[in-house]
Design a protein that fits this description.
3-stranded antiparallel β-sheet
């Protein structure tokens, strides 16, 4: 795998995947304990099957796109986002990205349950590469956007899933990234906050930022995404306009 762009990269491309595959070795039988597994492994009694979470993925995403990703649970959507975010290294293929990536891959990622909301803002923003001074300058804006009120000084473990999503999105988008990656994190928020989030995403698009979003809400994908992709069993089933992809995906799940 190479992270270096080839000569044929277009100037407006920010994400390119070429023949990307992610493969896992899965034991053919369940083993009760790790000790038992190691004993069987040393004895040569463990056999594995190959499972492809992604297989031969090819996509080219342009600057300023809001790109939707659809698929059933276990289809490979989250794995794809992890590969693009450089959280997961593919078994084969080439991944190329351009610019700063701000990933919001799962609820509570980058947060500590025993720290307060304020402390988690500093922790998460630091993990995203921001310095203390930069966070100090943005802290009031982050707090205001998150709308967590009196819970700001309480431990994260006391937060509802919706409150965690609000805080995570607020930190991830306080600074406009080149690429924002969202994995279903907005599905737990209330409708009013979702509207705020999609409004912010639209402003990012106007400024040239790219947004990748996994969502099961096809109406939302159709309304805000230019293009979309449907993935099934780790393979691309369709890629094109959001309207066409949503139509084909909807037909497949209503058969």
């Amino acid at each position: 795998m190479s992270n270096s762009p080839k000569q044929e990269n277009h100037s407006d491309s920010v994400i390119q995947l070429e023949d990307v595959s992610v493969c896992y070795r899965v034991p053919t039988e369940s083993v009760g304990t790790f000790k038992e597994y190691m004993i069987r492994l040393v004895q040569g009694r463990i056999k594995h099957n190959k499972f492809y979470a992604l297989q031969n993925i090819n996509i080219d995403i342009k600057s300023g796109e809001i790109f939707g990703i659809l698929g059933r649970n276990g289809a490979g959507k989250s794995t794809l986002l992890k590969v693009i975010s450089n959280v997961l290294v593919p078994a084969s293929g080439r991944v190329w990205t351009k610019g700063q990536i701000s990933p919001l891959l799962q609820l509570g990622a980058g947060f500590h349950p025993e720290l307060t909301g304020r402390e988690n803002i500093y922790l998460n923003a630091t993990l995203l590469g921001h310095k203390r001074k930069e966070i100090d300058e943005k802290i009031d804006e982050i707090i205001a956007f998150a709308e967590i009120g009196a819970f700001l000084e309480t431990p994260l473990r006391t937060y509802s899933s919706g409150m965690q999503a609000r805080l995570g999105f607020s930190v991830a988008t306080a600074w406009q990234p080149d690429i924002l990656i969202l994995d279903e994190v907005l599905s737990v928020g209330d409708l009013e906050f979702q509207r705020k989030c999609f409004s912010r995403m639209a402003s990012f698009r106007e400024s040239g930022a790219t947004v990748l979003m996994v969502s099961h809400e096809m109406k939302r994908v159709e309304s805000i995404c230019e293009r979309a992709m449907w993935i099934e069993h780790g393979q691309i089933m369709a890629i094109g306009t959001a309207k066409d992809v949503c139509h084909n995906y909807k037909k497949s799940i209503t058969k």
